[in-house]
Structure prediction request, 740 residues.
Amino acid sequence: MNSRRDFLQKLAPLMALPLLPKTLEACNAFNTSNYDGRVLRVAIMGLGSYGTRVADAMRACTKAKLVGVISGTPSKIKDWQVKFNIPQKNCYNYENFDSIKNNPDIDAVYIITPNALHQNQAIRIANAGKHVICEKPMAINANEGVEMIAACAKSKVKLLVGYRMHFEPKTLEIIRMRKAGEFGKILFFQSLSGFKIGDPTQWRLNKQLSGGGSMMDIGIYAINGSRYMIDEEPVWVTAQETKTDYERFKEGIDETIQFQLGFPGGAVASCLSTYNMNNLDRFFLNGEKGFAELQPATGYGPIKGRTHKGELSQPHVTHQTMQMEEMAGIILENKQPVIPVDGDEALKDLKVIDAIYLAIKTGNKVDLKL
Amino acid sequence: MNSRRDFLQKLAPLMALPLLPKTLEACNAFNTSNYDGRVLRVAIMGLGSYGTRVADAMRACTKAKLVGVISGTPSKIKDWQVKFNIPQKNCYNYENFDSIKNNPDIDAVYIITPNALHQNQAIRIANAGKHVICEKPMAINANEGVEMIAACAKSKVKLLVGYRMHFEPKTLEIIRMRKAGEFGKILFFQSLSGFKIGDPTQWRLNKQLSGGGSMMDIGIYAINGSRYMIDEEPVWVTAQETKTDYERFKEGIDETIQFQLGFPGGAVASCLSTYNMNNLDRFFLNGEKGFAELQPATGYGPIKGRTHKGELSQPHVTHQTMQMEEMAGIILENKQPVIPVDGDEALKDLKVIDAIYLAIKTGNKVDLKL
Prediction:
């Protein structure tokens, strides 16, 4: 495992070569585990609190390694260089990061910036020939998502979206049970998703950066959860917005939205997305033969869950560690996750978000074609 | 306590005399407890399964006593006479029950018949000068409810509706906590109400008798619960119906309805009413400072509940025993329940049901004026 050629020969049967970026390399000098396979070398773009969480979690990864940063704040870059042992040659700012194209030591960029910046940044990364991992929401509307998917396809790089729950063990156990028919025909899903948002000056409450309010940030868990829990694509949506604080939640920033989804098999989903209350975070899946509940369902953990058969006992994992480990497998080995995390998957959520905003604007039920 | 006069003299300061029916008597020969106060002597109209449940539960009542029956089935009357020691003179059928007017040994009639029959039966009972206790829904629409209220007012009899949860200890503890401000400003309520209905030939699935589907039967718990948990009257409603089984749930019989209520203080309620799934029956009240959950919330018990302060430990009571005991207090002593159970209270639920059906028919949000 000492050369690109050796590596590619060994892995060739397992992967789809056209999707590998030109700069992909097998090994990473920083990786100290016993693992001697390929390592995905990742740069993080956006060094905020969630970026820090991902970086810390990646310390426990075997297949993924933080090797670079992209930030507009030189002092943050310096701090991260020290904390994560990042060489100067792997540090970029928002003006010069297109030159990452010429850096053979970075395979992928994880974009963890405000939502409204994702599209442009992702396209630039794709054009630089690097795999794109983008935090959710992938973009602020479906049109942007389509453009991102096209750019990544054109550059033959992968586009993955940070759906960390897709790798969470209790979530996956429920999916396994559903596939095994243990809940019978699925009839209902519910997600209560939200929290009381703090600092009123944060970018999440600035439409120019966030593209929307709670729906973009936390409501998307309800949309996405409805889809992977029921395992169908919704065919209609209705939605109702309420706002109690017009100062904090300005025009275009939704505070609370209830929405309902209808599925082809007759199941319905009832969802709440909010920035104005805590004590939520519950998934509930109901079928003819049984049910599953996750509460908390999507927090950083530990997730708690039960079904009609009893408590779920799968161990807690750090979601971001698991996500990055699995995404490395997807990119390097063409591994197929149980629940997709690619651009097509994320685009469906954006289409539902678009439809929810339209349903609120018009007051009408909106048909969906995902 | 041997004469009507002695009794009235003793109780006069406690009660509103104009509301007492002429036939009210203080004691009941069948009452064997140490209680020596007044007893409400009740006839049950409709000897089905729920009527039987109420009758059995009334055995444990001190202030209320089953003394009569009204039924269209002579064999049922005979069975009940034996089981509950009911004299022949207190037995009626649906043709002759207006003559209950001349029976001084019956104070009130509890109507436990199919929904669509309530209005006519309640008015006849009111015209006979007897107090009316009516199972929920009080009627199948608000217009009928208005007529029932008017008839009872005209005859100066009370009209109470079988909202048994209004007397349930864990429910009342949550109400107490809310009034004490322990949840802070109320932001959200949710009710998941429903069950998979059995026998397709039952009256509940016959529009002529039921007046509607799951909404009439179980969705009303969600409406009513929203109102007493939030302690405001909703100002708008939106609703979405879905149907998967057109054979079982014929025209006018709703299978599943999701509905949302908006309240003046900004709180919202998210509710589900269904006849097509089990594993539901959850109330969730969320405020700025804490939350309460009941699950099961409205079944016959035991109810289970918790709040942000921990599990609720109030003892289980047989709901129907408690209800009848408290209703005797309301009728005999003009006792004021924590949550009203009168016709005005029930009318508000009927107005919401009317609005939900209108919202489904039109696809529009419907304003409410309760």
Summary: Residues 348 and 370 of chain B are 6 Å apart (CA to CA). Confidence is low (pLDDT under 50) at residues 1-32 of chain B.
